Amino acid sequence: MICGIGVSRGCAVGPVALVSPAAGVDLSEPPTTDALAAMQQVRDALQQVADGLRDRAARASASACGVLEADAMMALDPALLGSVEERLQAGAGVTAAVYGAVEQYSAMLESLGGYMAERVADLHDVRNRAIARLRGLPEPGLPELLEPSVLVAADLAPAETAMLDPAMCLALVTFQGGPTSHTAILASGLGIPAVVQVGVFEVASGTVLAVDGNTGQVIVDPTPAEQAEFLARQARRAAMLMDSDAPGATCDGHPVALLANVGAVAEAQAAALGSVEGVGLFRTEFLFLDQMDAPTLEEQTQAYTAVLAAFGARHVVIRTLDAGADKPLAFASLGPEPNPALGRRGLRMGQLREDLMDTQLQALAAAHRATGADVWVMAPMVGTVQETEWFVNRARSFGLPTVGVMIEIPAAALRARRLLEIADFASLGTNDLQQYTMAADRLHGELATLLDPWQPAVFDIIAAACEGAAATGKPIGVCGESGGDPGLALVLTGLGVTSLSMAVSKVPAVRTVLAAHTFGQCQTLAQLARSAAGPEQARAAVLAAAEPVLRDLL
Ligand code: PEP
Ligand code: MG
């Protein structure tokens, strides 16, 4: 049994499909003596890479198709092949020749800047695939799943996770990755059970794994009894859940709206059929993760209109683009930075790229006019009163009626009252609030304790934000991953949040625990969590004092 952090609920049992890491140059390869034969070997490898990319392009979405086709052309670029040939003639080994030629080509693209410089990542992908072929290793990246499988990877990029098919990917297990990484968030959006941070372990393709995305347990080669137990757990937990689509509330009637986090039009349409009271966070950047060019006004209007139409009278909170750091968008890149999480991301990027911000606000306003829906718009990564004023005035100038701010920076939490004297609502992005309160990169697997969402200091910061919001009487929700954890949902309710937004797959468990506690109990649990010495003590104190249903659901 291996233990990691369960980040997307549910159990699964199935054979492993490995996501291979990129292999570097073969340091033990012999120098080239027959350049002609070596060149043929490289040509064959690059041709196979191009064929594979074209094959995928034929089955990909329209936007991904363009990217893959362009990558295939890059693999067969005559200038690249010429540079490889020169290196082979000078005696370099095959993988070293490919590596060197790609480096030279990348430097040239980088010096051109802008769109061309952004192709470097694609070129590196082609290089990694070609080198793997030359070394007789599997190509890196997502394997083609031929049967329903458990994907095992060191980590996955958000763009790769977004491409997973829940019918074929039974579960996801990663060696690294944080609980609030966008890979984890996308997995729960797709309803794929996921465990991150299991640490490196050797496992062969095809080995059976049993995975529990609630507890973070993974069993390699489970016995038939263990397999049956994992699947029975799932059934037991399902039986505990309330069969209800009533609005979220404590058992004494304190309302806490239960909302959906979504990142794709189809996901939003599916969420609208479920028992949620609306959308608490639509991550618009997820629509464009694989896109090279900025989305057009028409493209965006169409997407937002479809989402708003699906939710009818229920309110939908749409967040403006949150590009940068762990969610790079090719078309919104402002160039490399030493500390991207502390750099020009979120609203900061929006202020520097007014063209992107205005097109998005215009599209949101058009979707609002077309549907008459209750649309709320908010900006990510707001830190100051001035940023709040800038965003609120701008969004209102486009005719958007309800404008809010995300509270993800401690400065904003401490000044929530001032921000909410300007904005209509606030939404706590606990994923980033955690990283900035604890000064710990949310993707850093080795900082798990600091990134534990039960850190009492984070509760103190949230409490300060809730007090500020209460003074203005304006709503303050949670849309970070904490909102979908049943124990944390009780604590957050006790701290004073007015709504909880999460992957739809997490809503029934949260509704069930809320309905088993009074608001007073939630306030007591919040007090216990805040006064604990650390995250483990906070979790234990809450578990001990909460109703038994909380333990049963874990
Ligand atoms: C958050 O930071 O909690 C949040 C909801 O935004 P994201 O995870 O997309 O950064
Ligand atoms: Mg955030």
Can you put this structure into words, describing what you see?
The chain has 554 residues and is an alpha/beta fold. 48% of the residues lie in helices and 14% in strands. It is built from 23 helices and 16 strands. It has helices at residues 35-59, 62-75, 78-89, 94-112, 114-117, 120-134, 158-162, 182-190, 224-240, 265-273, 297-311, 347-352, 354-371, 385-397, 410-414, 416-420, 430-438, 456-472, 486-495, 507-514, 519-531, 535-545, 548-553, and strands at 2-3, 5-8, 11-18, 149-153, 169-174, 194-196, 208-212, 217-220, 257-262, 278-283, 315-319, 375-379, 402-407, 425-428, 476-478, 499-502. The strands form two sheets. Strands 1-8-7-3-4-5-6-2 form an eight-stranded mixed beta sheet. An eight-stranded parallel β-barrel has the order 9-10-11-12-13-14-15-16, surrounded by six helices. Helix 7 (158-162) links the parallel strand 4 and strand 5. Helix 1 packs antiparallel against helix 3 and helix 2 crosses helix 6. The longest helix has 25 residues, at 35-59. It is globular. The relative contact order is 0.10. The model has no long low-confidence stretch (mean pLDDT 92). The structure holds phosphoenolpyruvate and magnesium ion (MG). Phosphoenolpyruvate binds next to strand 10 and helix 17.
